[in-house]
Amino acid sequence: MVSAVDRPTTGARATTPVIELQDVGIRFRRNKRGRRNFKDLFAGRNRRARPGEFWALKNVSFRVERGEAIGVVGRNGQGKSTLLKLVAGVVLPDEGTVRVREGVAPLIEITGGFVDDLTVRDNVYLTAGLHGMTKRQIDDRFTDIIDFAEIHDFLDTPYKHLSSGMKVRIAFSVISRLEEPVILVDEVLAVGDKAFREKCYRRIEELLAGGRTLFFVSHNEKDLRRFCRRGLYLDKGALVVDGPISEILDRYNADYGIPPKH
Ligand SMILES: Nc1ncnc2c1ncn2[C@@H]1O[C@H](COP(=O)(O)OP(=O)(O)OP(=O)(O)O)[C@@H](O)[C@H]1O
């Protein structure tokens, strides 16, 4: 999935996009556990829909250049997290193509991909190791990671025994210390307390200043405007508008904003 970014010498597009989705569709089943059975894997893309199936995303196409910060906007259940999971490679599309040309650091679920029964310490080594860091590199950053998360007393506690806020602290701390050029942040930060959230937001600003690419899902307008210049507005599984974040928020508010009091 990871390869060098080509640099064309001429033309309107200065770079090959870091992320490129073309006509992407993904369907889920409402009434069953799991998405597909083994037979479905060989049934091809044109198999008929089963009862209860619906398209969580359909005909979604966009390109993202390196260093862009993109806010993903939409009501609950409109496919925002699913979009991030597609970019992270955690789920595969049923239609279309997802190309991600650089490594991805995802903070898309409260667990951050951490293993419940492992201690905080072991989870830090496991997650950072899976993202290509050597033991030596992790040793060097370990104190920083724990200092940022402020969970010194819980290094040998199984991850499952941390509070929700503490889980997010350590997950963000690790994810934001990875070298991956693309960062995905779902709404999980909302669980952190105010002071910690602000610390995370400053860290995100530093990462953006360093040229990282960001996908940021939030229901908070102020936060979206703070980080993102571009927005994607998802509604009923479709990408309704792709444009400057202020236009996206205006359109979203016009469609679903709180009506004025009479
Ligand atoms: N693994 C799955 N199996 C079945 N349905 C799923 C699965 N994952 C997501 N869905 C459904 O897909 C739709 C989109 O979900 P998604 O989590 O992407 O929405 P969202 O926009 O992130 O919502 P929210 O703002 O509430 O977090 C929802 O109807 C959800 O119930």
Automatic annotation (TrEMBL):
<dbReference type="InterPro" id="IPR027417">
    <property type="entry name" value="P-loop_NTPase"/>
</dbReference>
<dbReference type="Pfam" id="PF00005">
    <property type="entry name" value="ABC_tran"/>
</dbReference>
<keyword id="KW-0067">ATP-binding</keyword>
<dbReference type="InterPro" id="IPR050683">
    <property type="entry name" value="Bact_Polysacc_Export_ATP-bd"/>
</dbReference>
<feature type="domain" description="ABC transporter">
    <location>
        <begin position="36"/>
        <end position="261"/>
    </location>
</feature>
<dbReference type="GO" id="GO:0016887">
    <property type="term" value="F:ATP hydrolysis activity"/>
</dbReference>
<dbReference type="GO" id="GO:0005524">
    <property type="term" value="F:ATP binding"/>
</dbReference>
<dbReference type="GO" id="GO:0140359">
    <property type="term" value="F:ABC-type transporter activity"/>
</dbReference>
<dbReference type="InterPro" id="IPR003439">
    <property type="entry name" value="ABC_transporter-like_ATP-bd"/>
</dbReference>
<dbReference type="GO" id="GO:0016020">
    <property type="term" value="C:membrane"/>
</dbReference>
<dbReference type="InterPro" id="IPR003593">
    <property type="entry name" value="AAA+_ATPase"/>
</dbReference>
<protein>
    <submittedName>
        <fullName>ABC-2 type transport system ATP-binding protein</fullName>
    </submittedName>
</protein>
<comment type="similarity">
    <text>Belongs to the ABC transporter superfamily.</text>
</comment>
<keyword id="KW-0813">Transport</keyword>
<dbReference type="InterPro" id="IPR017871">
    <property type="entry name" value="ABC_transporter-like_CS"/>
</dbReference>
<keyword id="KW-0547">Nucleotide-binding</keyword>
<dbReference type="InterPro" id="IPR015860">
    <property type="entry name" value="ABC_transpr_TagH-like"/>
</dbReference>
